[in-house]
Amino acid sequence: MKDSQLDIYTKFSTAQTNDELWSSLHTALADYGVTSVFYGFAHSLKLAEAIGNKAAMYHRTSHPASLGEYYQHKNYHYINDSLPVLHCAVSTRSFLWHKDEEWENATYIQKHMRQVNSSIGLEAGVSIPLRFSAPHGIGGIGIATGGLEPFEFDKLWNERQNEIKNIVYGFDMLTRKEHLDEIFPLTNREKETLQWLAVLGSPACNIGRKMGVEDTTVRTHLTSACKKLKVHRPEQAMVKALVLEIISL
Amino acid sequence: MSFNLDLYEHFQSALDKQDLWEKFQKHIRGYGVSSAFYGAAASARAILEQGLVNAGTYLDSHPKEYRDYFDKEFRMEDDLTAVHCMTNSDPFLWHDRKQWGNPTHSQYQFMMDSMEFDMGVGATIPLHFNHHGIGGIGLSTAGMDGQEFDKQWASYKQEILSACYMFDEIFRRNHIEEVFPATKAELEVLTHLAYGREPKKIAHVLNKSHSTVIQQLQSAREKLNASNNEQAIVKALIFDLLSL
């Protein structure tokens, strides 16, 4: 028998690791003809606009590897290079890839990217925008149904889009609530240092006094926290940790 | 239902924060409230480290001699109602000794001294916002005894709570710029700092001189009542002044 929506959620919430959750997502979505998934989120839209998707966003994908290589190679990484990604950033409505009317005002690059995607089997599918920690956090999930004709997926979407959305939202929420430590593996001491940075501010001796450690230790923790959060400066690490709720004040 | 909508529109129509505060007080006076205190801050830790005045903002209509006495004699941690707000979300009824738990000597003294000022009967409603933000509304009903208050509370709890939550929402949404009057340009510079850019880089990106950026950061800190850039960023973030 097919799993009910509640069963799916229960399975998601008992996942021990991020990998297990990721694979449960694929199992759940396979019932809807989904063959591969792209998942991404960022703590700031404007930052993603400014420095590009890859640098600002956490992402994970099971789309064909050839697509990844193509993106890397061509340096196509800005938010507006991909219309579905851009759409997720500015709208909360789902974006059906194969609807021609969605692409009417697309730029040359966006149309080109669509062709590339179609050529490797990513023709029918949908991008679903995600939001968290309003108004800052944004993200999206793109799901491809490689084996379906666009009209078949269309029919499925019309009938069962709520189920698909529930699965996707449940996955996103649990990834951020339960598995963020695997994505950004900060130690408790590093989190504590960021916490005190947010409350007391610089210089490091403020924080060191509070935590009973040397300034140099504070700086070491901050540098390491920056690295793990994939940012360059403590201010940004602090903001990212706040928005993603990695630290709580 | 229409009652709440009317109140919402009434609060929405406030011209400034003082006007909103007066509208709120006038409304809850209908339930026997004689004076009120509103406080909101970036986080509980910030309040404990910097005090409420530096960590956030407040409005107060409690008797001045009461405020003066307690500011002089007690610390934040001595106020059971404040401590309650930092760790709970349900209302705290001042005169309900069951809610006092095991108070410290100072906390007990605080509650007993409050009664001397006829500030022993009332309720504190904790507020939480944007995951990290914290606050509370204290409502005093001087002249009422505990039993009268309990009766009033049993009948109008929902109305009182929704008025408080509505006030807090609208205060933070519509009037926070009066409290922290940072300009667009100052907030923009702060946002770029939150992106992890150094002032020199910010100057380059925004096509400003380095000294302008430094000066705008300083004035942002002043207007946000923050002693350094990190505190300014956090406060602006949690009070929704920055859009990342």
Features:
A: 249 residues; alpha+beta; five-stranded antiparallel beta sheet; 13 helices; B: 244 residues; 5 strands; elongated
Description:
The complex is a heterodimer of chains A (249) and B (244). By secondary structure, chain A is α+β, with helices and mostly antiparallel strands. In chain A, 57% of the residues lie in helices and 12% in strands. Chain A contains 13 helices and five strands. In chain A, strands 2-1-5-4-3 form a five-stranded antiparallel beta sheet, with helices on both faces. In chain A, helix 10 crosses helix 12 and helix 12 crosses helix 13. The longest helix of chain A has 29 residues. The termini of chain A are far apart. The model of chain A has no long low-confidence stretch (mean pLDDT 90). Chain B is an alpha+beta fold. Helices cover 58% and strands 12% of the residues of chain B. Chain B has 13 helices and five strands. Chain B has a five-stranded antiparallel beta sheet with strand order 2-1-5-4-3, sandwiched between helices. In chain B, strand 4 and strand 5 form a beta hairpin. The radius of gyration of chain B is 20 Å and the shape is elongated. At the A-B interface, helix 3, helix 10 and helix 13 of A face helix 3, helix 10 and helix 13 of B.
- Could you tell me the mean pLDDT of chain B? 93
What's the overall geometry of chain A?
Answer: globular
Oligomer: heterodimer
Find the count of extended strands of chain B (DSSP E, 2+ residues): 5
Q: How would you characterize the largest beta sheet of chain B? A: 5 strands, antiparallel
Question: What percentage of the residues of chain A does DSSP assign to strands (E)?
Answer: 5-15%
Shape of chain B: elongated
Secondary-structure element pattern of chain B, one letter each: HHEHHEHHEHEEHHHHHH
Strand residue content of chain B: 5-15%
